[in-house]
Amino acid sequence: MRVEDLINELQNVISDAKNLPLTGGKSVIDTGRVLNIVDEIQGALPAELRQAKAIVADRAQIVSEAKQEAEEIIRNAEARRKAMINQSEIVRLAQTQSQEIMNDAKMKSAEMRKAANDYIDDIMRRTDELITNQLNEIKKTRQSLKSSQRN
Fold first, then answer.
1. Which of 61, 91, 93, 140 is a good FRET partner for 44, with 20 to 30 A between their CA atoms?
2. Among 128, 109, 105, 129, which Cα is nearest to 117's?
3. Is 68 in contact with 62 (CB distance < 8 Å)?
């Protein structure tokens, strides 16, 4: 029997006891029965106490395991957060570097275009000068020919 049941039985024995007349409410109780119930309670208590202690120990172990698991989850979350921060930092650096490369490429392209235009302009200027000189020579030669034909 469980301790609660034995205590209820003990209460029943006491409440069922017969009152003695002229004693001011004193009762006659079957002491043998009461002592048997008390003995059973004493026998049942250690088992229930052991069971209660085991439950408390299990509870403490479960709480401890839950705390360890929570700490592990927190550590993993922190590591993941750091990895994500590092990854976003890497992406930011890559974007910065790509922007620098693009700006550098645009600047070099503009410089090359200007240099090419300057080179072409120089060649065209010299060609223009040569053609102009040749044209002037042709005109002089023509003039000379015309003059020589008149004389």
1. 61
2. 109
3. no
Characterise 19 by phi-psi region: left (phi > 0), alpha (psi -120 to 50), beta (else). beta
Task: Match 């069922």 to its residue by tokens.
Answer: 16
Q: Which residues pair with 19 in a beta bridge?
A: 27
Q: Token pair of 48, please?
A: 């229930």
Q: For 29-80, write each residue's pLDDT tens digit.
A: 888 888 888 888 887 777 777 787 888 878 888 888 999 999 999 999 999 9
In a 10 Å sphere around its CB, with 0-12 CB exposed, 13-18 middle and 19+ buried, how is residue 61 labelled?
A: exposed
Domain limits, the chain: 3-150
For residue 10, what are the contacts with CB-CB under 8 A and spacing of at least 6?
34, 37, 38, 41
What is the tens place of the pLDDT at every residue in 103-144? 999 999 999 999 999 999 999 999 999 999 999 999 999 998
